[in-house]
C-alpha cells in the first residue's frame, strides 16, 4: 500500500506538468493565429486568450505578457527552422543538376513557412521584441553560412568574396519570393513557387556553367 500511495504522489506532478504543456501549446497556437491576423503590435493578451477559449487569468498563469508569448513562440519556431534548413541546405553531390538542388531547398523552406505563417509575421514585423530580432539576426547569419555551404558544392572554384555575394543575393531573392508566395493560395501560390525557382536557377546558371545533368535537362525536346 505505501508503494501505491508513493507512486500516486509522483504521478500527480507529472499529470499537472502534462496539462500545463498542453495549455501552453494551446495558447501558443492561439497566439500564432492572432499574430498572423492582426500583426504583433495590434495583438493583445485578451485577444489571444479569447482565441484559445480561456480566461485572461488562465493565460497569465503561464505568460506574464504578450512579449513573453511571442518570445516562446519564436524560440520554438526558430528551433524547428534550424532543423528544416539543416536538411534543406546540406552540401550536395557536385553532379546534382542545378534545378534539382535549387528546387529541393526552395520546396523545404516554402513548406515550412506555409505550415507556420506566423514565422514570417514575427520575424519580419516592424515591432517584434528585441530578443526575437536578435535571434532572427543570428538565424540569418547561420542561414547565410548554410547557403554558402550549399553553393560551394555547386561553385567549387568561386572565390570566398564572390561566394558570399552570390549567397546574399540568393537569400535576398528567396525572401522576396517568399513574401509574394505567402500572399497567395492554391494554384497561384504554386505558380509563384515555380517562378521563384526559375529566378534562382536563371541567376545561378551562368555562374555554374555546364555541369553533369545540365546538358540533358537544357536540351530542347524533339517533337
TrEMBL record:
PROSITE patterns the UniProt entry points to = HTH_TETR_1, HTH_TETR_2
Which residue ranges does the record annotate as region Disordered?
1-20
Domain HTH tetR-type residues, every copy: 21-81
- Which residue spans does the record list as DNA-binding? 44-63
Record Pfam families:
TetR_C_22, TetR_N
Q: Where is the composition biased (Basic and acidic residues)?
A: 8-20
What is the top-level taxon of the source organism?
A: Bacteria
Bilayer-spanning residue ranges: none
Record keywords, A-Z: DNA-binding
PANTHER family listed in its UniProt record: HTH-TYPE TRANSCRIPTIONAL REGULATOR RUTR (PTHR30055), TRANSCRIPTIONAL REGULATORY PROTEIN (PTHR30055:SF201)
Please identify the protein, giving its name as recorded: TetR family transcriptional regulator
Species, as recorded: Streptomyces phaeoluteigriseus
Amino acid at each position: 500500500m505505501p508503494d501505491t500511495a508513493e507512486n500516486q504522489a509522483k504521478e500527480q506532478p507529472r499529470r499537472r506538468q502534462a496539462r500545463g504543456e498542453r495549455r501552453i501549446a494551446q495558447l501558443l497556437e492561439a497566439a500564432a493565429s492572432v499574430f498572423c491576423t492582426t500583426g504583433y503590435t495590434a495583438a493583445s493578451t485578451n485577444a489571444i486568450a479569447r482565441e484559445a477559449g480561456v480566461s485572461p487569468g488562465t493565460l497569465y498563469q503561464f505568460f506574464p505578457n504578450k512579449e513573453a508569448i511571442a518570445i516562446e513562440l519564436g524560440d520554438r519556431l526558430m528551433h524547428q527552422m534550424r532543423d528544416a534548413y539543416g536538411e534543406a541546405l546540406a552540401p550536395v553531390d557536385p553532379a546534382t543538376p542545378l534545378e534539382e538542388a535549387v528546387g529541393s531547398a526552395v520546396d523545404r523552406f516554402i513548406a515550412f513557412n506555409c505550415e507556420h505563417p506566423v514565422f514570417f509575421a514575427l520575424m519580419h514585423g516592424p515591432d517584434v521584441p528585441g530578443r526575437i530580432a536578435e535571434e532572427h539576426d543570428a538565424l540569418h547569419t547561420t542561414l547565410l553560412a548554410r547557403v554558402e555551404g550549399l553553393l560551394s558544392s555547386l561553385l567549387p572554384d568561386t572565390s570566398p568574396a564572390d561566394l558570399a555575394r552570390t549567397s546574399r543575393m540568393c537569400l535576398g531573392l528567396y525572401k522576396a519570393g517568399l513574401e509574394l508566395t505567402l500572399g497567395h493560395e492554391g494554384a497561384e501560390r504554386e505558380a509563384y513557387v515555380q517562378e521563384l525557382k526559375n529566378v534562382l536557377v536563371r541567376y545561378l546558371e551562368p555562374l555554374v556553367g555546364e555541369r553533369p545533368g545540365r546538358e540533358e535537362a537544357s536540351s530542347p525536346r524533339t517533337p
